[in-house]
Design a protein that fits this description.
The complex is a heterodimer of chains A (364) and B (306). Chain A is α+β, with helices and mostly antiparallel strands and 364 residues long. In chain A, 23% of the residues lie in helices and 36% in strands. The model of chain A has no long low-confidence stretch (mean pLDDT 89). Chain B has helices at residues 4-44, 62-68, 83-114, 118-129, 136-147, 152-159, 173-197, 201-209, 214-225, 227-242, 246-251, 259-267, 273-298; strands spanning 48-49, 55-56, 69-71, 78-80. The termini of chain B are far apart. Classes of the chains: A alpha+beta (364), B mainly alpha (306). Chain A: Part of the ABC transporter complex PotABCD involved in spermidine/putrescine import. Responsible for energy coupling to the transport system.
Chain lengths: 364, 306
């Protein structure tokens, strides 16, 4: 599903959103274009204030774009009020109606659509079963726990069978264990319902584990769209590489370019091969990014060398922080094995071997 | 020598005395301002009217009998008299209409204020309460100036050529309504605002998201959540409205009597204080029962969250 382009559920075309007027004007979204495919789990990922929630609110219809259009299966929905869009939202605060029971909350959307009572009851029962809340149907929303409220909010948004489900950081209020459970639950629900999910989060781990595709956002712009693997292994820009996972950046000079591959010389004089970010045309100097687990610390010579500054044991792996000879720091992550493997001492001289397909050249 | 137990007992009695002393001001006010006068009214309703007003200290149920019945002056037989009932019914009707009207005008007003930014809200609230600083009588005369035959409204309508004869608004039930709505509107707006300010507007967004139109959001989400404010506002408007005296006398011209005017009449020209006292207690009892029923029916399980 991720790499077979199907129909587009949502197409955002050149959307700008400006808040305020005159001097105090702020562009929350700066000419954003993105296509979200049918049935995919699409994540908008970025730090707070990057415009991801604004984009979600524009798709939901709570705000209207200053410029550009939003297409839902080909028709422009940007001027429609939220109650005329076949799109539902799971709110960060859940926003459950406190004067209604769990079942009444779930049935509210169908009731507003004017569905017959029998159909509403059947669908509510189905939804309660889907989120495993059958026993609490008659409860008030103030009498259930946070995780249960989350499930009700999901069921309420799914009940009217929207074309697209929008989720605004729905897991951020839950504790770690519950969040892990709900992540799996969300994937299951998306799979079972076949509805396109657009998920907003600032948690890169959540984005990597759940999404079919991710759009990384910063300062009102989309920097890169791709599968979790693309985003992690082939980051297009320094911000993307830095925001997702731990990363080492090295300065390098480009010797030769051949399609998507390049030969570069590092400051240490070592020559390594690297892939080039899509659509990026480097010339002369470049920044090379290497993930800590794609390099190896060795006793003796490597591509680069330095002195061990710190060794941190994490159980599954060990992080070795190395001060390179040119003054920069470099982190290597090595898998641990029981009773074996090289251990490093603080102050010890080590070499770092960079794998063949480990380095990526990207836009600074 | 006092034993420990005796000392403790002494301290205890001192504590009790202190507690009584502390609550004395409150109890004095409650007795002097509330239950005391009420008791006097109750006693007066069972006495005999004096020839020049006041009462003669002789037990009589005549006051209570005259609330609904009329004694024939020739043969002393009792007959049902509908006059008091008619006046009561008019008062009730006008008070209810004024309550509904203030709700209709007050609800959007409160909603408007509650949806402004924090800073401007205070200014709007201030503007709403300004008329309160003026004497009730003066405010009522201001309304009179606006709606009388030569007032702004009629003059404007005539000059615009919409009508050629002034519309008789003054000295009608309409005038009383306008006056009461104007005077009591802040009493509705303030409690409504207080509960709307607490309203979580994300719930309104959730309503729109779930296909509720503006009207459905108002009826199904906003209204149930601000119901405590609606109840409080209705009570605050209804109680003074049913006992309104100044507004109906000035704007109704004494032609359309309201219950308060009827009571006043018994203590004034009517020289029948026991009847006035009985009427006062009757209206109070009816209002109390009506409010109890209203509150019980509206603040059921639905408004518990408030």
């Amino acid at each position: 599903m991720p790499d077979t382009p199907g129909k587009n559920a949502i197409e955002v075309r050149g959307v700008r959103k400006v808040f305020g007027t005159g001097e105090a004007q702020v562009a929350a979204l700066d000419t954003v274009s993105v296509s979200i495919r049918e049935n995919e789990f699409f994540t908008l990922l970025g730090p707070s204030g990057c415009g991801k929630t604004t984009l979600l609110r524009l798709i939901a219809g709570f705000d209207f774009p200053s410029e550009g259009e939003i297409l839902l299966y080909g028709s422009d929905i940007a001027p429609l009020p939220p109650f005329k869009r076949p799109v539902n939202t799971v709110f960060q605060s859940y926003a459950l109606f406190p004067h209604m029971t769990v079942a009444q909350n779930i049935g509210f959307g169908l009731e507003m659509l004017g569905k017959p009572r029998a159909e509403i009851d059947a669908r509510v029962a189905e939804m309660l079963k889907l989120v495993r809340m059958e026993k609490l149907a008659k409860r008030r929303t103030s009498q259930i726990s946070g995780g249960q409220q989350q499930r009700v909010a999901l069921a309420r948004a799914l009940a009217p069978q929207p074309k697209v489900l929008l989720l605004d950081e729905p897991l951020s209020a839950l504790d770690y264990k519950l969040r892990k459970e709900m992540q799996i639950e969300l994937k299951r629900l998306q799979h079972e319902t076949g509805i396109t999910f657009i998920f907003v989060t600032h948690d890169q781990e959540e984005a990597l584990t759940m999404s079919d595709r991710i759009a990384v956002m910063s300062s009102g712009k989309i920097l890169q769209v791709g599968s979790p693997r693309d985003i992690y292994d082939r980051p297009a820009e320094r911000f993307v590489a830095d925001f997702i996972g731990e990363t080492n950046f090295l300065d390098a000079r480009i010797d030769s370019l051949d399609g998507g591959k390049a030969k570069v010389t590092l400051k240490s004089g070592a020559s390594i091969s690297a892939t080039v970010a899509d659509g990026f045309k480097p010339d002369g100097d470049a920044t090379v990014v290497i993930r800590p687990e794609h390099a190896k610390a060795v006793k003796g010579q490597g591509d680069i060398s330095g002195v061990v500054e710190n060794v941190v044991y994490f159980g599954t792996d060990t992080h070795v922080h190395i001060k390179l000879d040119d003054g920069e720091t470099f982190t290597v992550r090595q898998q641990n094995a029981r009773g074996a493997g090289a251990t490093f001492e603080r102050g010890e001289r080590v070499g770092v071997v960079i794998g063949d397909d480990a380095a990526q050249i990207l836009k600074d | 020598m006092a034993t420990a137990a005796e000392v403790e007992k002494l301290n205890e009695s001192r504590d009790v005395r202190k507690r009584w002393l502390l609550s004395a001001p409150a109890l004095t006010i409650i007795f002097l301002a509330a239950s005391g006068p009420l008791l006097i009214v109750l006693i007066y309703s069972f006495l005999t009217p004096g020839p020049y007003g006041d009462v003669v200290w002789k037990f009589s149920t005549e006051g209570w009998v005259s609330v609904l019945l009329e004694r024939d002056i020739f043969d002393d037989t009792l007959a049902f008299a509908s006059a008091h009932l008619t006046i009561f019914w008019r008062s009730l009707k006008l008070a209810l209409m004024a309550t509904v009207a203030t709700l209709i005008f007050g609800f959007p007003t409160a909603y408007f204020i509650a949806t402004r930014s924090e800073r401007t809200r205070d200014i709007w609230l201030f503007l709403i309460t300004i008329p309160f600083w003026t004497n009730l009588l003066i405010r009522t005369f201001a309304v009179l100036q606006v709606i009388r035959n030569e007032g702004i409204v009629n003059t404007a309508l005539i000059n615009l050529g919409i009508i050629d004869q002034p519309i008789q608004m003054l000295y009608t039930d309409f005038a009383i309504m306008v006056g009461m709505v104007y005077v009591y509107l802040p009493l509705m707006v303030l409690p409504l605002y207080a509960s709307m300010e607490k309203l979580d507007f994300r719930l309104v967004e959730a309503g729109y998201d779930l296909y509720a139109t503006r009207w459905q959001v108002l009826r199904r989400i906003i209204f149930p959540m601000v119901k405590p404010g609606v109840i409080a506002g209705s009570i605050l408007v209804f109680i003074p409205a049913i006992g309104a005296y100044v507004t109906p006398s000035v704007l109704g011209g004494g032609k359309n009597m309201m219950f308060a005017n009827l009571i006043e009449l018994q203590f004034g020209q009517g020289r029948n204080w026991p009847l006035g006292a009985a009427l006062s207690i009757t209206v109070m009892a009816i209002v109390m029962v009506a409010l109890l029923v209203y509150v019980r029916n509206t603040s059921g399980s639905d408004a518990r969250h408030g």
